[in-house]
Amino acid sequence: MNHSDENLISSSQGNRKNCLHRHTYDAQDGQEMSEFYNRQETSQDKRFISQTMGESMGDKYVTEKLGYQVVFDGDEKSIPQGIDGLYRDSRTNELVIVEFKGQNSCESKLQKRHDWSIETCKKITHSHPPYPYSQVSEYEQSLAREILRNYDAGKRIRYEVIRTEIDLKTNELTSQLEKQTYLEQGLEQSYPVQDISQEGLTQDMDWGMSL
């Protein structure tokens, strides 16, 4: 397979301040999470809590609020540089590569590139020791190959950033879809970016902890 990026078509929408969908958790849960986060004495401990919160609550958000089906989640991730999660959107049947973010965590310079998802899959399938991507499991390699097969077939793939964070002033705890990028190869024209509000995913202010 060629996996050429020459005909890569991409389109993006959303950012941290202008998210595409947002869920606010119960006020008591926000209060408890804020107090727990502030009790951490070191920045390292706070980073760990932030990462754990981003991945665990992010997974719950995309499956129970956005309705995605789990293909691969962060619990099975072999290396930090790999893919945080892979899901399938049952509404569109598209594969969705998800990057989970927590408190004050930002996309890396590489993650901001429109081709980051495809390049990561290439590294997973082609790297050899001692490079980190060679340490991923056979299952992760098979997932990367499946993503590349879909990409080579001209099917749309999505890369999304999901953030879970606490407003330490108001104790508001939220998860949000803050970035969505469509990738496809070899098509003569790109499809318009999906307006998810048309799918019933409007601003969500449900104060129940169960998503």
How far apart the termini lie comes to 40 Å
Principal-axis shape: globular
Structure annotation, total helices: 4
Mean pLDDT: 83
Question: Structural class, judged by helices and strands?
Answer: alpha+beta
Domains, number: 1
Helical proportion? 25-40%
Strand content: 25-35%
Low-confidence stretches: 187-211
Please compute the radius of gyration using only Cα atoms.
Answer: 18 Å
Profile the largest sheet. 7 strands, mixed
* Total number of beta strands: 7
Which key features would you list for this structure?
4 helices; 211 residues
Give your account of this protein's structure.
This protein has 211 residues and is of the alpha+beta class. It has one domain. Helix content is 29%, strand content 25%. It contains four helices and seven strands, in the order E-E-H-H-E-E-E-H-H-E-E. It has helices at residues 27-39, 43-64, 116-126, 138-152; strands at 8-13, 21-24, 68-72, 85-89, 94-101, 157-167, 172-185. Strands 1, 2, 3, 4, 5, 6 and 7 form a seven-stranded mixed β-sheet that branches. Helix 3 crosses helix 4. The relative contact order is 0.25.
